[in-house]
Task: structure prediction
Amino acid sequence: MERIVEGSEAAFALLVKRYQAKIVNLVNRFIYNRDRAVEIAQEVFLRVFLHRKRYRRSGRFSTWIYTIAVNLAKNELRRKARLKGVTSLDNLLEATGDSGAFLADKQPGPDHAAHQHQVEEIVMAAIQRLPEKYREVVLLRDIQQLTYEEIEQVLNIPGGTVRSRINRARSALKRMLEPALGRRETSSS
Result:
């Protein structure tokens, strides 16, 4: 990051290469639109470069870039809500067809990989149905595997709030997933 602050394009290219997939995946999990997630990731890197002199060396770079990505993803959700004339995120998901309707066939098929993909789709649909404050902590902790302290910094909320939101989110997910996946699938998480 020091070389980027000094204007090194090669260092910036390396940074983009290292973080691009992670940022696209994080944003995609928030907005559930891969093409738009790629565009937002480009905006994230543009902001990193434009605001490179604001980066504080005392903090972790990953926390800083994830904060930018989460904020842009939230802005995108708000923009979609305004365009649809929807006031809540749950209503937005219904209006955009991302309501998370579970697949009808819940039995594992002969192909384990296909079953795993189906389970992942069900879990991600359930995560999309969570209220925003719970969805963001679950995505950052369980999908992006940030520490509790990093989540505190990214979302600018106290540690106790992070922990309680994660617990509530996981409880809500368990309630949503038990009917779809059965007790066997959710008890192992």
Remarks:
- The longest helix spans residues 159-187.
- The CA atoms of residues 148 and 181 lie 28 Å apart.
